[in-house]
Specification:
Helices cover about 55% and strands about 5% of the residues. It is mainly α. It has two domains: about 60 residues; about 40 residues, no CATH class. Keywords: Coiled coil.
């Protein structure tokens, strides 16, 4: 294969992936809406679940934690370190965060930029 055909194939694949992502987003939204309607129905009938064609559909209540911003997360971590008597919580937190990361691996990425022809 020539480089020209490879570039054309890459552009075609990227365009198809973009359209599939748009379609996926729409389907996920429809899924959320259907789940909400089913949950609303079950709550209105005061039921925890329903059976339909050999499938049991249950409403499961779970706790979900709100995410913290990085600034708040770091401040809370520093407070915990200070509570345990760490004298330099900033440095210790920085070292802990660095220790959690894996070793750097060299990686190359193909970068494609569109430009205008000056003909």
């Amino acid at each position: 294969m020539s480089i020209k055909s490879d570039v054309l194939e890459l552009e075609s694949i990227r365009a198809e992936l973009a359209s599939l992502n748009i379609r996926r987003k729409k389907l996920k939204e429809k899924e959320r809406e259907a789940e909400t309607r089913i949950q609303d129905y079950l709550r209105s009938k005061q039921q925890t679940g329903v059976k339909y064609q050999g499938t049991a559909i249950l409403v499961e209540e779970k706790e979900k934690r709100a995410s913290k911003s990085n600034k708040i997360r770091d401040a809370d971590a520093k407070c915990v370190l200070e509570r345990y008597g760490i004298t330099e919580p900033d440095r210790v937190l920085k070292e802990l965060m660095e220790a959690r990361k894996g070793e750097p691996i060299p990686n190359s990425k193909l970068k494609i930029k569109k430009y205008k022809n000056r003909n």
